[in-house]
């Protein structure tokens, strides 16, 4: 048992470094190297590993989250409504944090979060989360970049669905939801996120596929030409660049 304890402590600290990196908005665990050892030790002691089955819920609509969850693997979706009226508004993948904004804002929202596939998370119970923030102001300050990014992300998502062109909305949402240039969502979910019907979105996606911008497969959209998709998305304009038209014009007749 004595031989196992150092390994257990090392594993706990690695888990804590990963969590600290995600909480601070960093991209790699190495970014958390300057975090106080006491904070890492506290995280190692308080975080527990949890596995979620597809469809298993993290929190229910109109109820506050019971914890903060740091995603290690898999995809979580946040949705409004039920049945035919259900609309996915956001997804979160590896390295992202869910539940924290609602807890800090003392917000009870009409949305629920659930696992899309098999998900591995580090769970930080709400009581321990608030107690640790109170005892470690440095950790509270560390959360500010992540919270700022969440505000910016919300603005970008709102701007993405506020434009008139469905092409622009689709391009922007693909860029927002892509992880390693793959959008691991079925087309009906992407359509609901931009306020479009599935057939309308499918027409746009088939055009992008013909132009060589994306590749379509079962429950996934792979971005092949990010630069072209960015041009189509046009962050500060309402009308789409004719990326598809320009490519068609370039083709020999």
UniProtKB/TrEMBL annotation:
Q: The HTH crp-type domain covers which part of the protein?
A: 164-227
Q: Which residues form the Cyclic nucleotide-binding domain?
A: 34-104
The reply on keyword Transmembrane helix is no
UniProt keyword list? DNA-binding, Transcription, Transcription regulation
KW ATP-binding (keyword) present: no
Per the record, the domain of life is Bacteria
Molecular functions (GO terms): DNA binding; DNA-binding transcription factor activity
Any one cellular component term from GO for this entry? cytosol
The family database entries (PANTHER family) matched by this protein are listed as:
CRP FAMILY TRANSCRIPTIONAL REGULATORY PROTEIN, HTH-TYPE TRANSCRIPTIONAL REGULATOR ARCR
Protein name stated in the entry: CRP-like cAMP-binding protein
Protein's organism: Kutzneria kofuensis
């Amino acid at each position: 048992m004595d031989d196992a304890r150092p390994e257990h402590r090392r594993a706990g600290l690695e888990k804590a470094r990963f969590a600290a990196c995600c909480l601070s908005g960093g991209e790699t665990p190495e970014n958390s190297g300057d975090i106080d050892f006491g904070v890492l030790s506290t995280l190692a002691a308080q975080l527990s590993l949890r596995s979620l089955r597809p469809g298993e819920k993290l929190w229910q609509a109109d109820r506050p989250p019971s914890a903060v969850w740091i995603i290690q693997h898999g995809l979580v979706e946040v949705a409004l409504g039920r049945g035919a009226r259900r609309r996915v508004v956001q997804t979160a993948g590896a390295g992202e944090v869910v539940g924290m904004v609602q807890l800090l804002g003392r917000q009870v929202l009409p949305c629920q979060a659930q696992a899309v596939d098999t998900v591995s998370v580090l769970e930080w119970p709400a009581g321990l989360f608030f107690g640790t923030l109170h005892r470690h102001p440095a950790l509270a300050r560390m959360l500010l970049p992540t919270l700022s990014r969440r505000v910016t992300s919300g603005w970008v998502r709102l701007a993405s669905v506020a434009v008139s062109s469905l092409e622009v909305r689709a391009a922007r949402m693909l860029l927002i939801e892509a992880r390693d240039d793959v959008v691991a969502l079925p087309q009906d979910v992407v359509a609901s996120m931009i306020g479009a019907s599935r057939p309308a979105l499918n027409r746009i996606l088939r055009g992008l596929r013909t132009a060589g911008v994306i590749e379509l497969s079962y429950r996934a959209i792979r971005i092949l030409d990010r630069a072209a998709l960015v041009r189509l998305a046009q962050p500060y304009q309402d009308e789409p660049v004719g990326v598809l038209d320009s490519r068609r014009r370039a083709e020999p007749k």
